[in-house]
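Pipeline run #58 for the internal structure catalog. This entry was flagged by the ingest filter as a single-chain record with no existing model, so it goes straight to prediction. Upstream metadata was stripped on purpose; only the residue string is passed forward. Reviewer on rotation: M.T. Logging verbosity set to normal.
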Amino acid sequence: MKEKEQSPHNKNPSEDLDPFEIEFLPKFRKNRGPEQPFINEFGVVIGDYDYESEHSPLEQWSTETDPAVMAGDQWVHPFKDIGFQTTENRNYFEQGIPPQSGIMMHPDKNVAYGYQKGQEAANEDSQEESEGEES
């Protein structure tokens, strides 16, 4: 029996996709990087889901480890990442529907309170007024 060969660009969504992979639109497949697992500059295999690599900073973590050592594209597989499974990412990469703005905003909380432009001056004025009322 001859095995059927498929181009990674012509995959049927129900075939050959691993649990962290999605069916990218053709426009999102260009120049993404390798589809197969790769070894990053720290000697850690990215894309095989074996995150217990002996060279990984996660396996050598201490209070002196700077978390920034694990930041950057060299830690993310361009085709196989659990983040692609979110509804927003699937809508965008598989259907071309851009994410809604303001997803991470708090509609009833001003998280910038006290740090807005001019807020410092307003705080000083209100503090002077309250000090004047106490005398």
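catalog note: Helices lie at 26-29, 87-95, 119-134.
catalog note: The longest helix spans residues 119-134.
status: ready for reviewer M.T.
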